[in-house]
Amino acid sequence: MTATVVSRNLTAEAAFTAVKAAVEAGAEVGVAVNAAVTDAGGNLIAFLRADGAFLPSGKIAQDKAYTAAGFKLPSGALFDALKGEPAVLTGITTQPRVAAFPGGLPIWDGPHLVGAIGVSGASAEQDDACARAGINAIGLGPNQE
Predict the structure, then answer these.
(1) pLDDT tens, 1-19?
(2) Pick among 2.70.20.10, 3.30.450.150, 1.10.3210.10, 3.40.50.720: CATH of 12-137
(3) What's the predicted TM-score (pTM) here?
(4) Is residue 90 packed enough to be buried (19+ CB in 10 Å), middle (13-18) or exposed (0-12)?
């Protein structure tokens, strides 16, 4: 029996680089977004609100990251995965901090989930693109590889 497992952790420096890149990606397309990065357990590491970004979107960005970390899949994929089971979809999406819409992506270091990023404040497509920009800035992936 093995009593422990080795885990990898996203560094604070990487988390701050990711949120900065996500907010900058929003600015490049003319939107002000909030970006949050969590560890693999959904605990906040870094957060950045662009000047003029919607205040409620700050919590939504954090919830998207929490969802992506907790379910180990993009937050938008959660809705698609459950839409054929209305009772399960309703049950899960009414839980605190669960956001089943685009803008949250897990962050993988190969086969290891090391965190997640959530972006909110623009369209679903723009939020997702900004989240991808954040991950790209730290050289990791949104998919397990």
Answers:
(1) 999 988 899 999 999 999 9
(2) 3.30.450.150
(3) 0.95
(4) exposed
